[in-house]
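tokens incoming
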């Protein structure tokens, strides 16, 4: 076997043609892009012919430079046809697209990440098992069979108890094809469950006006419903976290009924009193949440709803707290987490009057949890006698297997302890007859080893 790294490059390494115009600053940009392309395993070609696509780094300083750049782009399009434009001319309004509407992507100068994203989109990054430190699926901190899939960063809301927007900025949605490619790689790498996360999953794509992207030659909107529908085609469990009850959430319920997405919604309601929700500046505070939940359950009776709440928010009265308990009775949520309000440095809510004394906050938290425990217990007991699909998470040394139903997210929800699971492995999906329950967990026996 050869020890020459160059000869280990797959013969079919994708090739990028590169044209660099302009000043020394543009040259440095070119060098950075070329270095990155080589580091990722692309071959570089000095000519247009034979390249899989061409990157043209342009100059837009004076008219003659503009003309030269536009001419180079036109030549690359004529000879090769697939052209990505970067550099100063890209920052000059729409001039590139107006002259050459067929270019694949246009970025401004110093845009290494954007150029690489455009290249990846057109020409997926080659995976070389000899030289790559990480598998195509990337490195994961979760067990092999499930993975978190982050679809956006930041948040457009300004909930008064939260400082995330000031730390991470406004919503920035990841391109839909990039998310789908990551998900596909994860599933190819053995992942059986994708946990979709963000600060506000239902807002996915708002920042890019639900732009249409392309996946496997098919248009896919940058929007929650379209994204999760496409994710559902990979054959893994798809679980939605941090969804807000906007009207378009109704659209994912049929996908749950079809089995494309798990019948599970993690929706942080935070409170039930409309006055407190307004003080919290919660998104969708005005929605009629109970009617929504009823509607979802009518259409998808197996829907599991998980939520989180804050008790003892500044100004919360005993009556408003009781409203919250009444809400729990009506909503019959399956899983609930709660926190006693505590001021976070920099949060707007700190300035609100009527801080609830610590002792009272703790007392309300205990009452709240006790109240919900009865509801969760009753709901879980309805599963006794049913046979449910379970994803195996762990086999203990004594051979006892534990797993989760479709209604249980890893780490935060309950588990199923399984009798007769000695031959199982983590990531297996089995049918389990449920025999026993408590307020958090289930117990059962393996019925069939097919989920
Ligand atoms: S709590 Fe509110 S502001 Fe904070 S991340 Fe969630 S939706 Fe955004």
């Amino acid at each position: 076997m050869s020890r020459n790294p160059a000869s280990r490059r797959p013969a079919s390494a994708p090739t990028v043609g590169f044209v660099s115009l302009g000043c020394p600053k543009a040259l440095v940009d070119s060098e950075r892009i070329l270095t990155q392309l080589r580091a990722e395993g692309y071959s570089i070609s000095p000519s247009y012919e034979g390249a899989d696509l061409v990157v043209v780094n342009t100059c837009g300083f004076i008219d003659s430079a503009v003309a030269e750049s536009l001419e180079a782009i036109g030549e690359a399009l004529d000879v090769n046809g697939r052209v990505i434009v970067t550099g100063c001319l890209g920052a000059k309004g729409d001039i590139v697209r107006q002259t050459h509407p067929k270019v694949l992507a246009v970025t401004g100068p110093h845009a290494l990440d954007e150029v690489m994203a455009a290249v990846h989109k057109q020409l997926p990054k080659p995976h070389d098992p000899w030289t790559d430190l990480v598998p195509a699926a990337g490195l994961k901190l979760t067990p092999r069979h499930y993975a978190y899939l982050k679809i956006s960063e930041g948040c457009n809301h300004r909930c008064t108890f939260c400082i995330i927007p000031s730390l991470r900025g406004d919503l920035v949605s990841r391109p839909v094809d990039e998310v789908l490619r990551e998900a596909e790689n994860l599933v190819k790498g053995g992942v059986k469950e994708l946990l979709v996360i963000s600060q506000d999953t239902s807002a996915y794509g708002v920042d890019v006006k639900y732009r249409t992207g392309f996946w496997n030659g098919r248009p896919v909107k940058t929007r929650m419903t379209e994204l999760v529908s496409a994710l559902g085609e990979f054959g893994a469990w798809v679980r939605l976290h941090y969804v807000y009850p906007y009207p378009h959430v109704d659209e994912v319920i049929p996908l749950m009924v079809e089995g494309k997405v798990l019948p599970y919604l993690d929706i942080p309601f935070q409170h039930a009193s409309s006055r407190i929700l307004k003080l919290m500046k919660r998104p969708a505070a005005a929605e009629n949440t109970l009617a929504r939940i009823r509607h979802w359950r009518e259409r998808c009776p197996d829907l599991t709803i998980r939520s989180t709440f804050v008790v003892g928010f500044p100004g919360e009265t005993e009556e408003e707290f009781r409203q919250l308990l009444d809400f729990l009775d009506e909503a019959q949520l399956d899983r609930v987490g709660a926190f006693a309000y505590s001021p976070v440095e920099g949060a707007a809510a700190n300035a609100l009057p009527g801080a609830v004394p610590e002792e009272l906050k703790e007392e309300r938290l205990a009452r709240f949890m006790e109240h919900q425990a009865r509801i969760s217990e009753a709901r879980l007991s309805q599963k006794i006698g049913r046979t449910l699909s379970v994803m195996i998470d762990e086999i203990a040394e004594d051979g006892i297997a534990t797993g989760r139903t479709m209604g249980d997210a890893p780490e935060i929800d309950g588990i199923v302890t399984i009798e007769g699971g000695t031959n199982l492995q983590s990531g297996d999906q089995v049918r389990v007859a449920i025999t026993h329950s408590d307020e958090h967990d289930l117990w059962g026996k393996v019925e069939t080893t097919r989920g």
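note: The first strand starts at residue 15 and ends at 20.
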